[in-house]
Amino acid sequence: MTDTKTRILDAALALFNRFGERNVTTNHIAGELGISPGNLYYHYRNKAAIVSALFDRYREHLLTLLTVPEGPLTWEDKMGYFEGILASMWEGRFLHRDLAHFLHQDPVLRDRYKVFVEDSLARGLGIYQRLRDSGLIEASDEELRALLVNTWVLAASWPGFTHGLNPEISGDETLDRGLLRQGIYQIICLEAPYLRGEALDHLDAMKREYRLDETALDRLFGAVGQVRSE
Amino acid sequence: MTDTKTRILDAALALFNRFGERNVTTNHIAGELGISPGNLYYHYRNKAAIVSALFDRYREHLLTLLTVPEGPLTWEDKMGYFEGILASMWEGRFLHRDLAHFLHQDPVLRDRYKVFVEDSLARGLGIYQRLRDSGLIEASDEELRALLVNTWVLAASWPGFTHGLNPEISGDETLDRGLLRQGIYQIICLEAPYLRGEALDHLDAMKREYRLDETALDRLFGAVGQVRSE
DNA sequence: TGATTTTTAGAGTAATTACTCTAGAGGTCA
DNA sequence: TGACCTCTAGAGTAATTACTCTAAAAATCA
User: Fold this and answer.
1) How far is A1 from chain B (nearest CA, A)?
2) CATH number of the domain at B1-45, please?
3) pLDDT tens digits along B12-63
4) Residue B156 needs a FRET pair 20 to 30 A away by CA distance; which of A35, A55, A135, B97 works?
């Protein structure tokens, strides 16, 4: 059995992602674990400390994934890293969803978050530049920077967007996974115009791989999934 | 003097955008206007009713902007509509920021929001298709759909993203405007690869027009503004 | 075993805040 | 003028919820 401290984090993360931090009380977290509120507060001095600890975890994980070993990259590497990064951002989706409030009430987190975004974008740019060196992408530095920011914002916001259209299904493992994959599809489309060589050869296959089929889209998004001209 | 009912809405919108709905109490809104809480509750039966009314306003405004008159489009039309739409989404930024919570606690709003997104995307697709007919854009229907969703998510999330990096400056009119313009720049970059003809001719000018200069970027984003290679 | 530290329970508190209620002011129309 | 309706004030309430406090159980270690 893992220790209480991390069990609290796990339970909090699951509940926050599912219901939103605002709708999850500390008593609720304790209840979920079958422990007392007093016990919870023994491990974390307040609710913000839990959020902060979850942010640490998220940050560490994501920055690790954004550290790519030296050497030329293949499109398979690319997709691998890609999927990991997106999954990690999905895992920490409650953070981006309620970010404004966390930063509003915790100045320390505010600074740390800013540094985190800066780090992530810097590393992301490094990766994109190496993809360019490997001949998988063709774009100017300016294009790369804009693409990177757009990718970041999209990846960070996608869970919130899908949750807005499907608040009820959150927590269902397979459906969540479908939404995540559709997010990957959207980001593939984002960088599609800049792909070259090997990456371009596999573009169509990748699109088919990640794009949800019509019926799934229909179930998840209704009319949004397949925007029709009428 | 406008009537109290709309003054409440105006004050609430300003406060919500600035501090986030969660951090703005009904007493706070009343205090801002110099009226009593009782008076506020005479006009709106609860806080959610204020949010709902603001959503109505936002929805009406945006859908109007997404209704484009018949006939071929020029790139100037395009940029005009564009700026209006983005400004409108900026104006309603608190809605997207705290969307998850609003939808969580108000099932009626949930349904109306979903229809609203569906409508917006349908109209957006119509506009993109007409831009294609006018020779300003070249893309397949599938590309157009993906581009559209990405544009929507980016436009809706951009205010939240910038706010996360600069929580303190919210409310400053000129700085807010700068952030909005940088958002337009990001979206221009999003669709840049698909532009043709007249629109392509003006692409560089448009980029220069909307992109913040280095010093402003520096002030707003710090290291994020000009992501460096190392 | 006994001493000490860590962990847990759970009742209770203090503060916030959305919202209510009553009474009265101000306008309108007969 | 008086009846009536709309609007406003402001004190007060009820419910939520983050968090505290004391004491006891469990683990650790001499």
Assistant:
1) 34
2) 1.10.10.60
3) 999 999 999 999 999 999 999 999 999 999 999 999 999 999 999 999 999 9
4) A55
